[in-house]
């Protein structure tokens, strides 16, 4: 059984619908995930990541990298080749593709480079100052000096 009912989550929580939608999307696209082109995701620093995609045969002008609605979309369209070629073996695929990566909150793309048939996309998580943990200083109460105290007399 690969389906989950998130109805109790929607009844008891507010604002977590993105998590339920993400889980739903992951579970439904688990089987149909394309394997072309191959890619790596690596953690380069505590808050930095790099996606490397094998794009052999594509020029810079054939590739596009866009960020829209918390999704990184990498696409490639190869221009039609006008020269007539006869291949004995064609192992380098240059078919069009579109690969989507869902980005977490506060993750932004810092750059992209294309070298040696690899497209490298650098990402960084930038948590706003308001969301970072902060230390609250605890003030100590000064002990009272007995010379400041005075005698109180009972009224009754």
From TrEMBL:
SUPFAM superfamilies: HSP20-like chaperones (SSF49764). Keywords: Stress response. Residues 30-141 form the SHSP domain. It holds the Pfam family HSP20. CDD domains: ACD_IbpA-B_like. Belongs to the small heat shock protein (HSP20) family. This is Hsp20 family protein. It comes from Ruegeria marisflavi.
